[in-house]
Amino acid sequence: MVEFAHHLTGVRYWRPQCEDAERGGEVSVRMSGRRAVGREINDPLRYGTYRRDRMQSEAPLASDSRQQPDNVPKPPSLHWALVLLFSLLTGGILFLVWMFRQAAWVRRIDPMSKALRVLVIAFLTPILAVVAAVALGAEGPLPTVIVLAGRLIFAVAWVWSYFSMRNSIEARFGLNLSGLLTFFFTVFYLQYHLRRIAKGTHTPHRDGLFG
């Protein structure tokens, strides 16, 4: 009787005169009068064995990979267009609030994330720069340089924080988010994916412009 013997690595080995016997959800392969039952054999040339229950337990992972795990807190699910609209109506207040809300959620799924702290630094730096410029006086180029430096630090820290959040989301949900769209649209692009995660319609390991 000719059968295929499967090793744990997934490589198929063909050996003649093999008998398959099912014992407790495990398939053991008999070769040359010997049996490999209930244990893993490292010699694929003589034995082959795999656990059927292990295969069945791993199969749902691929089919259910789009579902949000129960232990993951639900992300902000407001549509990105509404975030844009309300940000315009509130003079940018909602925009600022939503940035910190997104960073706080990322901190919940990734305790090692520093995006929230970097955002705080990003918003405090221009304020401190203006205070320092006023304290030095309105004359001379130094106050202007201080204010511009504060704005530059704000922009760099802001973009860095969103790339940090992007990395945390990619690692947690297996997504491939666009770096270009993250750079230009930050809050709105990230909110697009957070809504998909909240609804369970995100697609892990998807390549493309929109991730």
Descriptive overview:
The longest helix is centred in the last third of the chain and has 32 residues, at 142-173. Strands 3, 4, 5 and 6 form a four-stranded antiparallel β-sheet that branches. The chain has helices spanning 52-63, 80-89, 93-109, 115-136, 142-173, 179-199, and strands at residues 3-6, 12-15, 19-23, 26-31, 34-35, 49-51. It has 211 residues and is α+β, with helices and mostly antiparallel strands. Helices cover 54% and strands 11% of the residues. Strand 3 and strand 4 (26-31) form a beta hairpin.
Uncertain segments are 1-67
> What is Rg?
28 Å
What does the main sheet amount to? 4 strands, antiparallel
Strand percentage, roughly? 5-15%
Indicate the structural class: alpha+beta
- The N- and C-terminal alpha carbons lie at a distance of 49 Å
The amount of helix comes to 40-55%
**Count of individual beta strands:** 6
Q: What is the N-to-C order of secondary-structure elements (H for helix, E for strand)?
A: EEEEEEHHHHHH
Mean pLDDT: 75
Count of helical stretches: 6
Q: Could you say which overall geometry the principal axes of the C-alpha atoms support?
A: elongated
**How many independent structural domains?**
2
Keywords:
211 residues, alpha+beta, 2 domains, four-stranded antiparallel sheet, two-stranded antiparallel sheet, 6 helices, elongated, disordered N terminus
